[in-house]
Write a structure and sequence with these properties.
Elements (H helix, E strand, L loop, with lengths): L1 H7 L5 E4 L12 H19 L2 E4 L23 H5 L2 E6 L2 H6 L1 E9 L7 E7 L4 E8 L2 H9 L10
Parallel strand pairs: 1-2
Antiparallel strand pairs: 3-4, 4-5, 5-6
Length: 155
């Protein structure tokens, strides 16, 4: 990042890491090292005044969760506490077939959280999100009516 700024005059607004959980970690100290890594990455982001994003894995329960929540994080819970924002991705088999998924704002340090957004997707043309809408009660009920999702339940 420093050489990019010094040599090219480029200072990124956003740094995307694909993905932090695959960076060098001591397997014998996996949870401790994972927490340390996420704190160090956040420190770099703050010092360089850039947003930093990384994907992470969910635990086994996330595979069958109606809505993936912050309690479904894999390996180290401190990832949630370190992050300024945590978005989760949920998708039923029917949503997958229809090109839909749900994003949940699980934890936001300086913004509203605990809301769902329905997104439409077109992976065949490389589009993670082609459109979105907040999941109001009306949207949720309509998705349940057409069988695209199940009624909400606590996970």
């Amino acid at each position: 990042m420093e050489s990019l700024e010094q040599e090219k005059g480029f200072k990124p607004d956003l740094t995307i890491i694909d993905y932090a959980d695959l960076m060098k970690l001591d397997a014998a100290m996996l949870r401790v090292d994972t927490g340390r890594l996420y704190r160090e990455l956040r420190g770099i982001a703050v010092s360089k005044d850039t947003a930093m994003v990384s994907a992470s894995q969910g635990n086994r329960e996330s595979e069958t969760a109606n809505v993936v929540r912050k309690t479904n994080v894999a390996e180290d819970w401190s990832k949630i506490g370190t992050a300024d924002g945590v978005l989760t991705y949920s998708q039923t088999e029917e949503e997958h077939r229809l090109g839909l998924a749900r994003l949940y704002a699980a934890a936001m340090r300086e913004a509203e959280d605990q809301y769902l957004v329905l997104i439409s997707q077109a992976y065949k043309i490389g589009q993670f999100c082609t459109d979105s809408t907040m999941m109001s009660a009306h949207v949720i009920n309509e998705m349940i009516r057409v069988g695209a999702t199940k009624p909400p339940r606590n996970n």
